[in-house]
Amino acid sequence: MAGLGDPPGGTPEGSPGGGEDEYRSVVFDESFVRAARLEEFSAQERIADHAPAVRRRTPLRRAGLSRQALILVVLIAVAVGTALYMGVRHPYQSPATQRPAEPVRMTVVPLAPQGEVPGAQDAAHLYANSPAAEFRTAAKGVPLPGHHRTAHFSDDQVLNALTTAKHYIVRSALDPDVLGGREVRSVRVLLDPDQLEQFDESFERPVPDGRHAPTGWLVRFDPARAELADAEIRVHGSMRFTETDASTLEVSADHTMVYPLRPPGDDRAETSLFTVRRELLFRFDREDLRLQQTQVVASYVQAGPLSCADDPAGHLRPLLAGQTARTGIPAGTDPYTEDNPTALCGTLAASAQPKV
């Protein structure tokens, strides 16, 4: 640091150092002059303007300040841009364009019994003597499989897809109001908006065309034909998931539901078992996952005991205890159309009925 009498820039080169130089206090180098805050007017300036002898000098600006400020602004802009990019872009997100939901392909196959439908007063007795003896009850029979992240979807997104698919299965096949034909909204709210028009048309104008069968969307019984005899519905099945591309998850579900039924309003009538096997394929894009909704891609249903002469598209009309399948064949199928064939009928094996 310069001493009390030293110039601001230090002692000039070549000048004698130390306190021994008697002229040290009057040596002014260029840096000292530039640092001075006062500047004396010239004699001509004092004569012309009658100004004071001295004036205050404007402090010199440091060179390079604008450049440093510009660099700082650029660095801040880069940091903010990076933060916004990382915040908006999910680590598993793909730039792929989302596809519109496809119409559901559905097939409902009635299974006709070979003889009389067995019945009993107690549903528990029927279950104990049927293939459903070890099935779990209601939603417990729809457990979620083990899950993990995929190449483009996180663990939470996979779990969200499985959970939404389970909600659809439970609401569409185990809700007493849905089964009785009194409710459809709880199922409708789970669908991708692109499929709502098809869903609504299916219930307003049911047609066995492989696209507009209410029983392809959900399980419901004709309330004039049958009602639940017991709240205990037995269920067994499985679910699987797969990533089909960078923007799509699919969940496949295969479940068998067994319902205890009796004639409506007759508490003394015998109970019989009605079996529905549903294979459903669900599709999820990122918007579906965010809104907890799904696209039903395909629905394949086998149900019985039913009569092949009854159209199962609008309602399922079960054959109850003591009844047999009526004679007749279902409506014909036009092989020149692109719709799935719906005039199908199978035989309900005797081993699928309870032994009473």
The low-confidence runs, each spanning 5 or more residues with pLDDT under 50, are 90-96
Counted beta strands: 10
Radius of gyration: 42 Å
Largest sheet: 8 strands, mixed
* Average pLDDT number: 83
Describe this structure in words.
- The protein is of the alpha+beta class and 356 residues long.
- It has 10 helices and 10 strands.
- It has helices spanning 30-35, 43-49, 65-88, 123-128, 155-173, 176-179, 185-188, 196-204, 214-217, 286-291; strands spanning 38-40, 54-56, 105-113, 136-137, 227-228, 234-245, 248-262, 272-284, 295-304, 346-348.
- It is rod-shaped and about 130 Å long.
- The termini are far apart.
Write the layout of secondary structure elements.
Layout: H1 30-35, E1 38-40, H2 43-49, E2 54-56, H3 65-88, E3 105-113, H4 123-128, E4 136-137, H5 155-173, H6 176-179, H7 185-188, H8 196-204, H9 214-217, E5 227-228, E6 234-245, E7 248-262, E8 272-284, H10 286-291, E9 295-304, E10 346-348
Parallel strand pairs: 3-9, 3-10
Antiparallel strand pairs: 1-2, 4-6, 5-7, 6-7, 7-8, 8-9
Main attributes?
single chain, 356 residues, alpha+beta, two-stranded antiparallel sheet, 10 helices, 10 strands
Compact overview of the structure:
The chain is α+β, with helices and mostly antiparallel strands and 356 residues long. Helix content is 25%, strand content 20%.
